[in-house]
Amino acid sequence: MPVKKSEIYSSLWKSCDELRGGMDASQYKDYVLVLLFVKYVSDKYAGDKKALIEVPSGGSFADMVALKGNPEIGDKINQIIGRLAEANGLKGVIDQADFNSDEKLGRGKEKVDRLTKLIAIYENPALDFSSNRAEGDDLLGDAYEYLIGNFAKDSGKSKGNFFTPSEVSRIMAKVIGISAETKRSQTIYDPTGGSGSLILKGADEAPNGLTIYMQEKDNTTAGLARMNMILHNQPTAEIWNDNTLTNPYFKEKDGSLKTFDFGVSNPPFSDKAWRNGMHPEQDPYNRFEDGIPPNKNGDYAFLLHLLRSLKSTGKGAIILPHGVLFRGGSEGEIRRNLVLKGVIKGIIGLPPN
């Protein structure tokens, strides 16, 4: 009998409750999502020598289970995660949360009890991904995004910092023409990738697969994206951690921006610091030939970057605040130039949350 997603979500959220008190949601997500990741790869890949993810000896969830009640459980969990990270080139990605922190997890018996209960929650049979996740069913990926969305609400922060609602993501994918006819050799790019939810939903619309490229400025969020790709069976996705506007990573051999078949983006709205570290008047990638956005609002900077990153036959979709349709000045000039060029094919107004 298939396991209901609601049961899995409930089990995962209990693990969050165990961490409340010593940290806010923006911190405990780092612990919960890493444990979710370790549990998943252990269930799916432990003992499989052909797997893209290696689960080394002393680096599995089973090793964590053996630590329940151990006075040194926090330090030893750190070691287990460190081994898994080192074996898969994930150092600095999955090993950032300190499971031995007295400040966040308590001291002595309090810490031991908290971590023991946390591990016990992940032993729930409903979280046995080796048997409960059917091929082609994105059960864990959906659970992962459920947690990301709830962390955003719980911390009082906008989901847009690292998460795009799946309904919006699917609309964007369909609008730009990703379909069953899309070839695996075709490429999709997100210059402000967040946790990867937007670009993954785009790739989901292509049953044959898509080649994924993504850049994300925030180091922690880029780490979430790398884990998210693995959880969604996209371990070969190329993800780079840096500022897309000042240091775009994906380039052609001649130094120009690499271009893609599809592009999607949900950039930070009205970024007031978009010019930091760059001189748009002398942009080596010619992204601002249609105009330079105002110093204190980077909405059009991200749009112009996405346009320059598309092939001549490429299609893209970007989420921006309604103000881009009406503001004057340099933004009005950019808007007019883009309309005259015919590169804007449609605008969809979304309601408030």
Give the CA-based shape.
elongated
Q: How helix-rich are the residues, as a percent range?
A: 40-55%
User: What is the percentage of strand-forming residues?
Assistant: 5-15%
* Poorly predicted residue ranges: none
Which secondary-structure class do the elements indicate?
alpha/beta
What would you report as the Rg, rounded to the nearest angstrom?
22 Å
Main β-sheet, spatial strand arrangement? 3-2-1-4-5
**Major beta sheet summary:** 5 strands, parallel
Cα-to-Cα separation, first versus last residue: 35 Å
Summed up, the helix count is 13
CATH superfamily of the largest domain: Vaccinia Virus protein VP39
The count of strands amounts to 5
According to CATH, the fold-level topology of the largest domain is Rossmann fold
The count of domains is 2
Q: Averaging pLDDT over every residue, what do you get?
A: 88
Supply the CATH architecture of the largest domain: 3-Layer(aba) Sandwich
CATH C-level name of the largest domain = Alpha Beta
Question: Describe it for me?
Answer:
- With 353 residues, the chain is of the alpha/beta class.
- It folds into 2 domains: 5-154, N6 adenine-specific DNA methyltransferase, N-terminal domain (Ferritin, Up-down Bundle), CATH 1.20.1260; 159-341, Rossmann fold.
- 42% of the residues lie in helices and 8% in strands.
- It is built from 13 helices and 5 strands.
- The protein has helices spanning 5-19, 25-45, 61-65, 73-87, 102-105, 109-122, 129-132, 139-154, 166-175, 197-204, 219-231, 299-308, 329-341; strands spanning 187-190, 211-216, 238-241, 260-265, 310-318.
- Strand 2 (211-216), helix 11 and strand 3 (238-241) form a beta-alpha-beta unit.
- Helix 1 (5-19) packs antiparallel against helix 6.
